[in-house]
Amino acid sequence: MNNEVTIRFAERMSQLPPYLFGMINKIKMEKRWEGIDVIDLGMGNPMDPTPNKVTEKLCEVAVDPKTHRYPVAGGMKNLKREIALFYKRKYGVELTGEDDVICTIGSKEGISHLCLALLGPGDTVLVPSPFFPVHVYAAVIAGASVLRFPLGSEEEFLRQVSSMCQSLYPHPKLVMLNYPHNPTGTLASREFFVEMVKLAKRFNFMVINDFAYGQIVYDDHVAPSLLEIPGALDVGVEFGSFSKSYNMAGWRLGYCVGNKEMVGGLAKIKGYYDYGIFSAIQVAGIVAMRDCDEAIVEQVAVYQKRRDVLCEGLARMGWEVDKPKAGMFVWVRIPEPYVRMGSIRFSVEMMNRANVAVAPGAGFGEEGDGYLRLALVENENRIRQALKQMKRALVEIDQEVKAGTFVLQPDAPQG
Ligand SMILES: Cc1ncc(COP(=O)(O)O)c(C=O)c1O
């Protein structure tokens, strides 16, 4: 008798490419184990502290045994009410804070499970590219087909959605938006959202807007919420996150607000998967939402300075770069001749030669290849240092290319 068990994954697993950032992170961790100081511009993982008021509240509440029980699934009433008040205060949106708000274990979990609630085989989702991976793969895992199209200008975006809705049968079921956009830092105008809501009603599709960077906006620009558009509550939801606004990435706290049926669908599916978020974290989240507007302003000022140091430094190296209007990243095209390496090899070379971690644009879809995404999480001095080290690495590459020992192509020559 054969005692061996064959481990067989579900078919959906074959749809998932290796997580590209995993590879870069692995090299980073190996270097750090060796005691090498890697400057990390790779992941949007905030390094600045959570506001004191929030950590103090967590510590105070965490010692109360009542918080050690299973929490209220879907979020505490007071936190949901605070989220509704935030929407009223910032965007003039009227929410009850009951069946139109649900708390999630970070927005990524919420987006994933909402896709599972809304989508299945035979459904089509439209996602602009480049994209944050979960916006595509949550739909893929749910069994839906994903149609990607270049992000482009707002006009082009709307034209593409309209044309795909007319030509595809069955019509797309969902459009996945992410404004402010990761990785490009693009902001949507209010008018864009107005047109999107009109299209949603005309072609009967739902809309999700991932608003994780809604509060990280520079130079007096404003990021409108999808929900402030009349009629938006009929067609969609928006996801918010505590991770970026309040430097609470490890706490895993986010929320989904908007259309009650969609929120209800997420609540139903989450009911089978999880028991909610540690109550002490939820109580601390109330303090963040209620008392930490000033901390956000200070944090955005910090990111804006880092953005300027990084963009100006890259420009001095001869790179063409636009300062992002929002988000935590600089999205920049790798200049000639180095772009011939492709973004993955370029990133690996920067890690190996410069001890600088960057995110290869290819990790955000094919349309992102040729670009890098640089996170604004390291301080200004370390950003300057990273630029110096990258510059040195590029000089080294130039010399090797001249000597014929390095070929500018996506994969290192074998042998
Ligand atoms: C666009 C976008 N959405 C969602 C997330 C995940 O946020 P959370 O920590 O709330 O799960 C990220 C994190 O990098 C992100 O960039």
TrEMBL record:
InterPro entries: Aminotransferase_I/II_large, LL-DAP_aminotransferase, NHTrfase_class1_PyrdxlP-BS, PyrdxlP-dep_Trfase, PyrdxlP-dep_Trfase_major, PyrdxlP-dep_Trfase_small. Its EC number is 2.6.1.-. Residues 37-387 form the Aminotransferase class I/classII large domain. SUPFAM superfamilies: PLP-dependent transferases. It is an enzyme of class 2 (transferase). GO terms for molecular function: pyridoxal phosphate binding; transaminase activity. Keywords: Aminotransferase, Transferase. CDD domains: AAT_like. It comes from the Bacteria. Its cofactor is pyridoxal 5'-phosphate. Gene3D superfamilies: Aspartate Aminotransferase, domain 1 (3.90.1150.10), Type I PLP-dependent aspartate aminotransferase-like (Major domain) (3.40.640.10). Pfam families: Aminotran_1_2. Belongs to the class-I pyridoxal-phosphate-dependent aminotransferase family. PANTHER family: AMINO ACID AMINOTRANSFERASE (PTHR42832), GLUTAMATE-PYRUVATE AMINOTRANSFERASE ALAC (PTHR42832:SF1). This is Aminotransferase. It comes from Desulfobulbus propionicus (strain ATCC 33891 / DSM 2032 / VKM B-1956 / 1pr3).
